[in-house]
Design goal:
The chain is mainly α. 67% of the residues lie in helices and 0% in strands. The protein has a single domain, classed as Tetracycline Repressor, domain 2.
Length: 207
């Protein structure tokens, strides 16, 4: 007999309300984009008053950053963890791509926001700029190790290609999910680099 699992602490009323607000914001941002959605839209969707939303979030920018950080709480350890070896990093990104097929709303949210955030004045500009910089740096380090004995593009260029492929595949998949196998395409690219696997889906942290 195994030790009984510890009961998860119950959320307070305020925590439940904040989660409802963030869920509503995520859904509306994914559907219409950040710029087209107002705090009043989010309040109505969450079944709250405008003042009720402001009680939990001072402005829409704070809400957006919470939406973005919530996803990172799941994926960041798979990419930024201190014990993530070069090959494990690549495999984890493949696993994240596979997991994303189960969360089309989040994929749409990131796709829409990343385009909007190319504007330096957008509140998520620094977030996406930093996110891509970190991913490029980590992948460059990984490919420098994994491809050290192979000819071809530099590790930095390979990292850029990998991220561009991930983003492009997600856009194509959003447009025509039945026609695009994101995982298969990413694995095929890994094979063209002279690396093997991952041959079968692996476990990921689920949210």
């Amino acid at each position: 007999m195994t030790e009984p699992e510890r009961a998860q602490p119950r959320m307070t009323k305020g925590e439940r309300t904040r989660r409802r607000i963030i869920d509503s914001a995520s859904e509306l941002f994914a559907k219409s984009g950040y710029l087209a959605v107002s705090l009043r839209d989010i309040a109505a969707h969450a079944g709250l008053t405008h003042a009720g939303v402001l009680h939990h979030f001072p402005n829409k920018e704070a809400m957006l950053l919470r939406v973005l950080s919530r996803r990172d709480e799941v994926s960041a350890p798979l990419v930024l963890g201190p014990d993530v070896a070069p090959r494990k990093l690549v495999d984890n990104l493949v696993a994240i791509i596979e997991r994303n097929t189960g969360t089309p709303g989040l994929v749409a949210l990131y796709a829409k926001l990343s385009v909007e955030a190319t504007d330096p004045e957008h509140p998520a500009h620094a977030y996406f700029q930093g996110r891509y910089r970190i991913l490029r740096d980590r992948l460059t380090e990984a490919f420098a190790v994994l491809l050290s004995d192979r000819p071809g593009p530099s590790p930095a260029v390979t990292a850029q290609q990998f991220l561009a492929l991930m983003d492009g595949l997600q856009t194509q998949w959003l447009l025509d999910p039945d026609a695009v196998d994101m995982r298969a395409a990413i694995v095929s690219f890994i094979h063209t680099l002279g690396l093997t696997g991952p041959e079968s889906p692996g476990p990921t942290n689920q949210s």
